[in-house]
Amino acid sequence: MTLALEDGSLFHGEGYGARTAVAGEVVFNTSMTGYVEALTDPSYAGQILVLTYPLVGNYGVPTGSPEATFQSSRIQVQGLVTQHLSRHFSHHLASQSLEAWLAGEGLPILSGIDTRSLTQRLRERGTMQGWLYRSEMGLKKAQRAATAIDMSVGVFSRVAPEARSTHGDGELKVVLVDVGAKDGIVECLVRRGARVTRVPWHEDFLADARNADGVIIGNGPGDPQDLDAVVQRLRSLIAGFSGPIFGVCLGHQLLARAAGFETYKLRYGHRGSNQPVREVHSGRCYVTSQNHGYAVDQTRCPSDWEPWFVNLNDGTNEGIRMNGRPVFSVQFHPEGRPGPTDTEFLFDEFLALAGSLKSGRTG
Q1: pLDDT confidence of residue 207
Q2: Residue 253 in contact with residue 219, Cβ under 8 Å?
Q3: Which of 48, 89, 202, 341 has its CB surrounded by the most CB atoms within 10 Å?
Q4: Phi and psi, residue 362, nearest 5°
Q5: Cα–Cα distance measured from residue 9 to residue 317, given in angstroms and rounded to the nearest whole number
């Protein structure tokens, strides 16, 4: 099997899984574990994922969708690239191998290549389009035959739920605007006593917010500039909703655009579970899980907003908050899945605000 990049680079290795040709943006993730969570994260929809850790698959894939493992109902990536694929697995929850899982979903795996060299190329030249195909097919034929995902509005429709759903039975009512939100976000809220209504991004979440105590805008794939309709509704939400509003990852970018910030594409994105961020005012540092290819431009910050977190590797924005209002967002994933839970306290603060404001309204 071969991976071809748009700059002409070719990486030949062993093919596993489905023998199909796929196309997508080639991105890398630096996490040492958590491939099940990464592969089911809707933020990876339409991408070919390169795992930099050299050994992948040794603990297999768990049965069903156990809590805190699967982040959606399906594998989201186009294909997987590894240095060494372990075809034998050992874990008390595992029911099948990584190879069998991807093959059953109709997705290819390329193994046996120098992923360090590939990652260095992506870091030097930036994220690129790629094609993963059987070597005997040839590049031109593969480019014609490869399946790809429309990365404009189409990708958001692919990852959004078909209909709204409710999770948990707590007293605090939270609306989750679902643009491809991870199940880990829902689990974190429900475990803290919230009743979560997941609303697809293309539906009228403003109507749901009228009866909610708080609103979260979830993560997802793609370019936030392609979701201007959501941005317009978020402007109305900020103007008319008195409860807390919390954006996560893509939700951070959408909330920022609604506030008047601009967004831009990063050269190779932040994907991994060891990304350091610093809270601007306290100076305290946290290790976070991240998966995004776009960022918020904080150089032209609206007067009623302020930067909240900053990335310690490249200085990019990692969070914003509104002055005098409970409206805020972060670029990283407080829920981890995979990765550290250093910043999971943000869900506690969000729900505490929702509870106190609800008490004030009812009082």
Answers
A1: 95
A2: no
A3: 48
A4: -70, -30
A5: 32
Same domain, 210 and 113: no
The list of the chain residues with pLDDT below 70 reads 64-68, 361-363
Which amino acids are annotated catalytic? 249, 333, 335
Torsion angle of the four alpha carbons 323, 336, 124, 148, in this order, in degrees rounded to the nearest 10: -100
Round to whole Å and give the CA distance between 253 and 320: 10
3-state helix, strand, coil in the chain (%, to 5): 30, 35, 40
Boundary residue ending a domain (149, 184, 204): 149
Partner residues linked to 330 by β-bridges: 248, 319
pLDDT digits (tens, 9 = 90+) for 320-335: 999 999 999 999 999 9
Q: Are 11 and 48 contained in the same domain?
A: yes
The span from the CA of 246 to the CA of 347, in Å, is 9
Count of the separate structural domains present in the chain: 2
Tokens representing 15 are 């093919």
* Tokens describing residue 327: 């409206």
**What is the domain-level CATH number for residue 284?**
3.40.50.880
- Do 124 and 170 share a structural domain? no
